[in-house]
Write a structure and sequence with these properties.
Layout (H helix, E strand, L loop, with lengths): L6 E14 L2 E14 L3 E5 L6 H8 L7 E6 L2 E2 L5 H11 E4 L11 H12 L4 H14 L15 H13 L5 E5 L7 H18 L2 E5 L3 H4 L4 E6 L2 E2 L2 H6 L10
Parallel strand pairs: 3-8, 3-9, 6-7, 7-8
Antiparallel strand pairs: 1-2, 1-4, 4-5, 9-10
Amino acid sequence: MTSQSPSVLECRSLGFSYRGAAGVTAVLQDVDLSLQAGERVAIVGESGSGKSTLLHLAAGLETPSAGQVRVKDTELGSLSERERTLLRRRELGIVFQAFHLIPTLTALENVALPLELEGSARGREARDRAAAQLASVGLSGKADRYPEQLSGGEQQRVAIGRALVHQPALILADEPTGNLDSATGESVFRLLLEQVAATGSALLMVTHSTALAERLDRTVRMVDGRLLAQDEAAAVGSPAAGPAA
């Protein structure tokens, strides 16, 4: 990456709050974050610090109370809900901690689904591309298995295949190894990095693991809804920049 690499994600002065019985609660406050094409960034922080909320705003799954989110050259606030859905199908891939595979679809059908929804491939072409993607995550022999017939690690491999099959500009991963044992989690994390590198996608990953975060290009820390600057992050013991893997 160079300083001339195009921005895939721009969050500017981002805020998010909600009104409850106790009044207004601020979840995010004045967050600025930018990712370049192909860059891999980790967000670390305590539970409740706003990490997942930031990911949801970046995906257009939530609407900010203040500020802007721009994916490539599109400002999400200018889009209708349907237009945001179409942009997600085209430009984003999302990997959840809890897998969120469709239980009535096989592994192959789960991976093919983004292609069919986005319309870039259908029928035989979508199945062929999904089969190739399953092979790339090591599951070519389990294409006809349903999620309940797969281990947790295998389900997350399917989820990674589904997120990357349409070669999105940006992958958003929310604790992708959080439901896995340490050995399986390490295998899935390495696979995620390999797949991201192969497609050239940028990666924004929420994690509680400092060890995993340090293997990405850059680490930012959230505390009480704020994204800390480099000197602030160093002062609380979490570096704002980590070595590349």
